[in-house]
Amino acid sequence: MFTLVIGSKNLSSWSLRPWLALKMLGEPFEEVLIPLGRADSKQQILAYNPAGKVPFLRDRQLAVWDSLAICEYLADCFPGKLWPLDAAQRAEARSMVAEMHSSFTALRQELPMNVTASLPGKPLSDAALADIERIVDLWEHQLERNQTQGPFLFGEFSIADAFFAPVVWRFHTYHVALPALSARYAAHLRALPAMQQWLAEAEAEG
Ligand SMILES: N[C@@H](CCC(=O)N[C@@H](CS)C(=O)NCC(=O)O)C(=O)O
User: pTM for the full model?
Assistant: First the structure.
C-alpha cells in the first residue's frame, strides 16, 4: 500500500495534487498528515523526507518526493489512467503541468491556498492578474476542445486537473471571476467527492 505524507489540508497546495490523483484512481493509501507552521513541523517532515518537504510518497522500499514526481510515478503504476491516451493531448497536458509546477509566482504569493477562507476584494498586482489570465486561457483552450469528451481539462481526469485543483480553491477563496467554461470546470472540480472530503478535513483541522 502507498503511504502519502502531506501537509495541512487548508494550506498545502502541493499536497493536494498527489492526494487527489490517488483518490481519483480509487486507490487505498495510508495518509500521514503533518500540520505545517508548528515548531516541530520540519523535524516531522525530515523523519520521512530528507528534502524536508511534503508531499512525499512511500511505496514499500521506494521513496518518491515532489508532487510532480509522485504523480508521474502513479501514472507509471496505473498506465492509461492519469495522462490522456492521445500523444498530442498528453504533450499538451504535460506542458500545462510543467508550467503550473514552475511558474505563476505572483499567484502563489498573493493568492495562497486557504481552502476554508472567503477573501473577496484582495488588491492584486499586474503580475498576479497576468497569471490568472494565463491560467484561464489555458483552461478555456482545452475545455472548448475537449468538453464533449468529459468535464475535465482533457475530458477524462488527468494529472493536469490534479495540478490545477489548488488553483480552483484559490480562485474560489479570492472570488476570482471566471468565464463560463472555466467557471463550470471549477465548480465541477470543487464538487468532486474527493475535493469535498479535502475541504471537510481542512475545516476539521481548525
Ligand atoms: N516542488 C515541491 C514543493 C513542496 C513544498 O514546497 N511543500 C511545502 C508545503 S506546501 C513544504 O513542505 N513546506 C514545509 C517546509 O518547507 O518546511 C513539490 O511539488 O512537492
Answer: 0.98
- Cα separation, 51 vs 29, in Å, equals 22
Q: Which among 53, 64, 73 is the best mutation to test ligand 1's pocket, defined by most ligand atoms within 8 Å of the CB? A: 53
Ligand 1 interacting residues, C-beta cut-off 6 A: 7, 12-15, 36, 42, 45, 52-55, 66-68
Whole-number Å distance between alpha carbons of 119 and 205: 19
Q: pLDDT tens digits, the chain, 206 residues: what are they?
A: 999 999 999 999 999 999 999 999 999 999 999 999 999 999 999 999 999 999 999 999 999 999 999 999 999 999 999 999 999 999 999 999 999 999 999 999 999 999 999 999 999 999 999 999 999 999 999 999 999 999 999 999 999 999 999 999 999 999 999 999 999 999 999 999 999 999 999 999 97
Domains along the sequence of the chain with CATH? 2-80 (3.40.30.10), 87-194 (1.20.1050.10)
Ligand 1, atom 5, lies closest to the CA of 53
Listed residue (23, 57, 11, 59) closest to 161, CA to CA = 23
Q: Are 131 and 104 in contact (CB under 8 A)?
A: yes
